[in-house]
Specification:
The structure is a homodimer. Chain A has about 130 residues and is an alpha+beta fold. Chain A is built from two helices and seven strands. The first copy, chain A, is globular and about 60 Å long.
Chain lengths: ~130, ~130
């Protein structure tokens, strides 16, 4: 049996292990690349960039919100198309300068209508010796 | 039945659809973020950066080669640790400014010994309503 105090300490420890938005390495331009992955299938859907502000908005909405480098503004994915992405979890790497956002997508990720933005193979890397 | 000429045209078309290294959008610093994914499990292992030169070396070796931003040099993953990553395929996205590299890893991806570099959860995004 654990005392209520012990449980409180345990919860506190878990809480402290989690990274806070401001603790990520935001770098000079204030942006971090984020890999969006389908939480169910594992398929990689998009690489986009997040800012502190887009992270705060994503947390509020529970849906992906990026920072558009071309338009220089927040970009709530699917706001006009309806192809939103419900956020399941956000993890950062050992350097704290990249994110993986696991999502349940509500439609295709790509503006071309493709399920994933990654559909163009780069020449010279296909592995024919599948061992 | 297809003529040999028709088959040649067909192969040519597939070839031309593939992106060449120099056709990627290398940007000002000459680097593109690359997501390394376990080809078997779908797990995201690392986000690292590639240069034209690291891509050419990766193609030669059939193993991941990145450009280390901190050390400003090519970085053949696993060269000293033995934890190499055999390249299965490389795809780019609709903007041609990000890559997904699918690999067969020969050991952990992370310098901490973790299988994946993405092991730190960011606070406030855990989805408790799993619908």
């Amino acid at each position: 049996m654990h005392s209520l105090f012990e449980l409180e300490v345990f919860i506190e420890e878990i809480w402290e292990e989690m990274k806070k938005i401001e603790e990520l390495r935001w770098g000079e331009n204030g942006l971090i690349p984020a890999v969006v992955q389908n939480a169910t299938t594992g398929e990689i859907l998009t690489v986009a960039y997040v800012s502190r502000e887009s992270m705060a908005r994503m947390r509020e909405l529970g849906e992906t919100v990026f920072f558009s480098r071309s338009r220089q503004c927040l970009w709530h994915k699917g706001e006009t198309s309806g192809n939103t992405q419900k956020v399941v979890s956000v993890t950062t790497d050992c350097d704290e300068d990249a994110l993986v956002i696991r999502v349940h997508p509500n439609g295709p990720a790509c503006h071309t209508g493709a399920r994933s933005c990654f559909f163009e193979e780069v020449e010279g890397f296909d592995d024919n010796t599948d061992d």
